[in-house]
Design goal:
Layout lengths: L40 H22 L6 H12 L5 H7 L7 H10 L3 E5 L7 E5 L1 H21 L5 H17 L17
Antiparallel strand pairs: 1-2
Keywords: DNA-binding, Transcription, Transcription regulation
InterPro entries: HTH_MarR-typ (IPR000835), MarR/SlyA-like (IPR039422), Tscrpt_reg_MarR-type_CS (IPR023187), WH-like_DNA-bd_sf (IPR036388), WH_DNA-bd_sf (IPR036390)
Pfam families: MarR_2 (PF12802)
């Protein structure tokens, strides 16, 4: 185990946890060490989310669109599940039911979706993509693919595939811990 006195700077004392071998003392990294902030999965996931969101925002700006990742997710979910209500949409994209109304309001205001009356329950409102919403999704397909590629920059195609599979596995395992769990079944229920 290395000691602090071997390192020359505040950062160097953490170097053992950032590379296979510590750059400051040449000691091997301990297997499974998650002892610094920079090794914590939650911190790394938050950072990757920041990166992905920044890349997404830049691409939307380049495309001349005012669209957030949550708004895109809502449009994509409605393309696959037309005619769902707001609560179901919230479950389909793992978004808070309380704030999904604002997302829907903004998308409706942009002319990308419409609300209608349910044929099964006249009190319920159902959501559908408008023609403009469908066109926007089609127009965005290459940009969304690019965002994913840039988010996973530095990984080989095999690593990217494995990384996404592991992300899916861990998010599925922790789904019920979320304040807005993913619900993919009928009416947002699993």
């Amino acid at each position: 185990m290395h000691t602090y006195h071997k390192h020359t700077s505040q950062y160097d004392k953490y170097a053992c946890h950032h590379a296979p071998t510590c750059l400051a003392c040449d000691e091997p990294k301990r297997a499974g060490a998650m002892t610094t902030l920079y090794d914590l999965p939650g911190h790394l996931i938050r950072r990757l989310n920041q990166i992905s969101t920044a890349i997404f925002a830049a691409r939307m700006d380049e495309a001349g669109l005012d669209l957030t990742p949550v708004q895109y997710a809502a449009l994509a979910a409605l393309a696959e599940h037309p005619g769902v209500d707001q609560a179901t949409l919230a479950g389909l994209i793992a978004h808070d039911r309380v704030t999904i109304g604002g997302v829907v309001d903004r998308l409706e205001g942009k002319g990308l979706l419409s609300r209608g009356i349910s044929a099964q329950d006249r009190r319920a409102r159902v959501l559908e993509l408008t023609a403009a919403g469908q066109q926007t999704l089609a127009r965005l397909a290459p940009a969304i693919a690019e965002v994913q590629q840039r988010t996973l920059a530095g990984l080989t195609p095999a690593e990217a595939e494995a990384f996404v599979a592991l992300l899916r596995k861990t998010t599925e395992a922790g789904n019920e811990y979320s304040r807005a769990p993913l619900r993919t079944g009928a009416r947002g229920e699993d």
